[in-house]
């Protein structure tokens, strides 16, 4: 496997693991969520994840116009980011944050399924 792809997949695993942990801490209303590690690490991991994604797209000549699965991943990523901010920061109620967190998790797994199948219609 290509080193950049290993970095990309590894960052995706770190990203979802961190998001899961932060979601559990949010549900428990834990003060640990305010730790510097939980505020900085996600940005570093997600920057590496996005950078490696761009590198892979350039390396393999994938563009969102020519590859509907890539466009679906980009749109789903934007949805994931939006839901994640509601879940961990902007949600007014705990229930709303929990629902956004669960929805973001589902979107993340959709992104992975699209990446594996190279099809935006993974559930059809």
In short:
The chain is mainly α.
What does this 3D model show about the protein?
The chain is an all-alpha fold. The protein has one domain. Helices cover 78% and strands 0% of the residues. The protein contains 4 helices and no strands. The protein has helices at residues 3-27, 36-60, 68-90, 94-117. Helix 1 packs antiparallel against helix 2 (36-60), helix 1 (3-27) runs antiparallel to helix 4 (94-117) and helix 3 packs antiparallel against helix 4 (94-117). The protein starts with a helix and ends in a 7-residue tail after the last helix.
Strand residue content: under 5%
How many domains?
A: 1
User: Helices and strands: which structural class?
Assistant: mainly alpha
Order of secondary-structure elements: HHHH
Radius of gyration: 15 Å
Q: State the helical fraction.
A: over 70%
**Count of alpha and pi helical runs:** 4
Major sheet summary line: none
Would you identify the regions where 5 or more consecutive residues have pLDDT less than 50? Answer: none
Question: Averaged pLDDT, please?
Answer: 94
Categorize the overall geometry. globular
C-alpha termini separation? 29 Å
**DSSP strand count:** 0
């Amino acid at each position: 496997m290509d080193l950049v792809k290993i970095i990309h997949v590894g960052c995706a695993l770190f990203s979802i693991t961190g998001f899961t942990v932060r979601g559990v801490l949010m549900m428990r209303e834990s003060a640990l969520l305010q730790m510097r590690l939980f505020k900085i690490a996600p940005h570093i991991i997600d920057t590496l994840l996005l950078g490696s994604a761009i590198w892979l797209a350039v390396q393999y000549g994938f563009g969102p116009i020519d590859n509907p699965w890539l466009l679906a991943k980009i749109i789903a990523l934007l949805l994931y980011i939006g839901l994640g901010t509601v879940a961990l920061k902007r949600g007014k109620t705990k229930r709303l944050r929990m629902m956004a967190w669960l929805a973001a998790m589902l979107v993340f797994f959709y992104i992975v399924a699209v990446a594996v199948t190279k099809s935006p219609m993974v559930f059809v």
